Amino acid sequence: IDSEHISFTSMIDINSFIAKKSVISLQDNIDFSVDVPFDTVSKNSVSDRTLAYASIYRLNGVYENASRRVSIGLLRVPFGVGRIFTPVDIYNPYQALALEPSQRQGVFGLYYTYAVGELSTIDMIVTSNKKKESKMGIRLKSTLKETDVALVAVDDKQLSMYGYEIEGDFNGMGWRSEAGLFKEKNQDITYQNSMFGVDYGFASGFM
After folding, report:
1. Structure confidence at residue 72 (pLDDT)
2. Is the four-CA dihedral 63, 69, 70, 73 of positive or negative sign?
3. CB neighbours (10 Å) of residue 87?
4. C-alpha 143, offset from chain centre
5. What does the alpha-carbon distance between residue 112 and residue 109 come to, in Å, rounded to a whole number?
6. What is the pLDDT along the chain (207 residues), one digit of tens a residue?
7. In the 3-class helix/strand/coil scheme, how is the chain assigned residue by residue?
């Protein structure tokens, strides 16, 4: 193996908050732990108005060449194209109550990407949680003209999901959509979640 194709990433996140008791109480009740086989968060309520915690944000190794990329460890699985509501992103869901909701905690697993062609890839993911249960996912993604299209499937002991994600640009306006068909195996419930969003950057200004 050529060592030039190997890289390692480690990120430790250290935060402290000073706020009103009600805000600190709300944050203290949020479970910042990650569903992985080992502990990643150390949280300490210093006082009624101060909260501090440290967490292992990323810890993984990567091997990459012209057509393949293999990542293993605590990593991010980038499913979904939505800004806030991302139905198919069941690996790293958006935490709306967190003080920094843009941060996505990682999962522990193996992430394999294979480039079928210049504009098409296959992603395969296997992760493990605290109960040593596995979750398997696959995404088939391709670029058609200026539009990214992907089919996504995820399956574990409790839930199965089949969906799509699509993102493109039209006359300077970005648009995106994703949807998933979900089946909760324990309760035999099937439901659907979807989203559609647009944005425009006003590159010329408002005037």
Report:
1. 96
2. positive
3. 22
4. 21
5. 10
6. 445 688 888 888 777 767 666 655 555 555 566 788 888 877 776 666 777 777 788 899 999 998 999 999 999 898 999 887 889 998 887 666 555 556 677 899 999 999 998 899 999 999 999 888 999 999 999 999 889 999 999 999 999 999 999 999 888 788 999 999 999 999 989 999 999 999 876 665 554
7. CCHHHEEEEEEEEEEEEECCHHHHHHHHCCCCCCCCCCCCEEEEEEECCEEEEEEEEEEEEEEECCCEEEEEEEECCCCCCCCCCCCCCCCCCCCCCCCCCCCCCCEEEEEEEEECCCCEEEEEEEEECCCCCEEEEEEEEEEECCEEEEEEEEECCCEEEEEEEEEEEECCEEEEEEEEEEEECCCCEEEEEEEEEEEECCCCCCC
Question: What is the token pair recorded at 89?
Answer: 């992103």
Name, in order, each residue with C-beta under 8 angstroms of 10's C-beta and a sequence gap of 6 or more: 56, 58, 59
Pairing of strands 41-47, 120-128: unpaired
Q: Are 189 and 183 in contact (CB under 8 A)?
A: yes
| Dist CA 201 CA 148 (whole Å) | 20
